[in-house]
Amino acid sequence: MQSRRRSAQPVSLYQRLNEEAQRLGKGAKGSQPGIERERIIRKARQAETTSQMSEWLRPSHAPASPKEKGEKPMTAART
Known about the structure:
Structural class: mainly alpha
Distance between the termini: 51 Å
Number of strands: 0
Strand content: under 5%
Shape: elongated
Radius of gyration: 15 Å
Order of helices and strands: HH
């Protein structure tokens, strides 16, 4: 049986999802109204919601998140 290769992520899931939401939000601001823009906004909201859920599920003994350190979470563009 092969063993899985595991590597530590240099950036937390919370941070990666917030960066993705921010990137998608900027992309939505630059696009014209329509179906594609709505898809981008939906993906940004999903990334933000998933980030929040990952924080709720994080064990209490895990390292503090940027949110707990006083940093504000990134939010997606909303129309």
